[in-house]
């Protein structure tokens, strides 16, 4: 199996775990977790320099899930990389679990930043990237933002800072699936044109298909060649990707599947028809 096919397989496993976790929990956010599964799969199984046996290894690459409600996609990737047993995924959102509804860096191994209040993740990523420079470390920092999250003013304050400090060790993604909890992003508070805004803020910007594994890899490779500015990868995605009845449906932003829906979703993911 070639690397592209292997990463597609990892993304499918992440999606299946997302469905199982949320079905067991009875609550959570499938739409934006499924839309970002390919990006997270490439990051955790191709790009990030990590050591599951040393989650706090000082020279590791960092990842900040700014859209913290998509915690299931992060937990599925961390379990897949061996930070904790996959069986633990079924404790999502349960009392006493390390896997809370939003990531908690004090509890879950492999989580670099506690997130959940939208808009704050990029500022944290800036701090990590600046720390690498001050400490003369060569680790890189990655962040994933939602497109609805771009409504938050703090994102743009952070964007200015990233460019001002020339944080070329920082690469961020926008999971551009076009939907947020209250509806289409263009109707709630349009961030368009997304790519042009980031360019205007001084970032190197790449537009890609966020479900095309090769495009994700190529964009990450290009980001590492850019000097003197951070890189934003605007990834066009489909909310609920991989499950027909969830795709492009705003109602699945924060609604967990019921048992019958879990079964149907897993059957579709196994068939590969939508991936």
Textual characterization of the structure:
The protein has helices spanning 3-25, 30-35, 37-47, 71-81, 121-134, 153-164, 185-189, 194-200, 213-223, 259-271, and strands spanning 62-65, 141-146, 170-176, 179-180, 183-184, 204-209, 231-236. α1 (3-25) packs across α3. Helix content is 41%, strand content 12%. The chain has a five-stranded parallel β-sheet, sandwiched between helices. The protein has a two-stranded antiparallel ribbon with strand order 4-5. By secondary structure, the chain is α/β, with parallel strands linked by helices. It has one domain: Rossmann fold (3-Layer(aba) Sandwich). It comes from Pelotomaculum isophthalicicum JI. Keywords: Metal-binding, Thiamine pyrophosphate, Transferase. InterPro entries: THDP-binding (IPR029061), Transketolase_CS (IPR049557), Transketolase_N (IPR005474). Belongs to the transketolase family.
């Amino acid at each position: 199996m070639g690397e592209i096919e292997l990463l597609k397989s990892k993304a499918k496993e992440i999606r299946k775990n997302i469905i199982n976790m949320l079905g067991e929990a009875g609550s959570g956010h499938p739409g934006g977790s499924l839309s970002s599964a390919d990006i997270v799969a490439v990051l955790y199984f191709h790009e990030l320099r990590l050591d599951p046996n040393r989650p706090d290894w000082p020279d590791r690459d960092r990842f900040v899930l700014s859209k913290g409600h998509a915690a299931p996609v992060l937990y599925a990737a961390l379990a897949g990389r061996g930070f904790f047993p996959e069986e633990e995924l079924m404790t999502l959102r349960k009392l006493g679990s390390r896997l809370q509804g939003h990531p908690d860096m004090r509890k879950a191994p492999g989580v670099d930043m506690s997130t959940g209040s939208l808009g704050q993740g990029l500022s944290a990523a800036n701090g990590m990237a600046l720390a690498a420079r001050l400490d003369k470390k060569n680790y890189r920092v990655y962040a994933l933002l939602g497109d609805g999250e771009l409504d938050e003013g703090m994102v743009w304050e952070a964007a200015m800072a990233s460019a001002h400090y020339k944080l070329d060790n920082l690469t961020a993604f926008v999971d551009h699936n076009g939907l947020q909890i209250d509806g289409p992003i263009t109707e709630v508070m349009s961030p368009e044109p997304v790519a042009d805004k980031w360019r205007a803020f001084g970032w190197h910007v790449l537009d890609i298909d966020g479900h095309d594994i090769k495009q994700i890899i190529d964009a990450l490779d290009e980001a590492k060649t850019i000097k003197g500015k951070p890189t934003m990868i605007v990834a066009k995605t489909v909310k609920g990707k991989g499950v027909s009845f969830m795709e492009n449906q705003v109602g699945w932003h924060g609604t967990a599947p019921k048992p019958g829906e879990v079964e149907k979703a897993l059957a579709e993911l196994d068939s590969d028809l939508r991936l």
